[in-house]
User: What shape does this take?
Amino acid sequence: MAEKSPTINRRKFVADGLRVAGAAGLFGAAGLLTMRRGGEPINNLWQIDPNKCVACGNCATHCVLDKSAAVCKHAFRMCGYCNLCTGYFEPEAAELTTGAENVLCPTGAIVRTFVEDPYYEYTIDEPKCIGCAKCVKGCIAFGNGSLYLQIDQDRCMHCNECAIAVACPSEAVRRVTAETPYLPKDGDPES
Ligand code: SF4
Ligand code: SF4
Ligand code: SF4
Assistant: This one.
């Protein structure tokens, strides 16, 4: 992957990233479109409280969908932009490179991009994410906890009884309203 110029100011890079995220409506418009059946809003949506999630891995295996509706999000405002990201690298990684043998994510869903020495940005390629929570666990254990899971309301079937909620050991999955379909960890719906 091409590295970004080291002359890019990190603060500007982050700000630009947030603007792009906002323009893309990562948490907003796309989700709201799926909240209407027969023109009526679905007011009881399932969502993960990221402050209760213990990254057990059940999200990936208990959703009724083949590919879980749970996906990783990144609270950029909480991230340390670490070179040694414990949500990205295997604990015993031989090298801090993007080689598959060195990284935690089983699907290559985390993109590592150089910002400026010694900072790197980590973004989630959500269509590739299977909600396994390996990165979330690594970030909680040794990092800032900026990686977290959310139920993608566009993927979710809005089951009456969420199978993930039943399987969750920490009661992290609860009902939310269509007005607040996501529970961003840093409180910023555009992060
Ligand atoms: S490690 Fe798992 S939860 Fe994290 S981005 Fe990869 S597939 Fe998604
Ligand atoms: S409501 Fe159904 S589709 Fe949505 S996350 Fe739960 S089990 Fe998966
Ligand atoms: S089942 Fe609960 S604790 Fe386990 S990864 Fe999903 S939300 Fe987190």
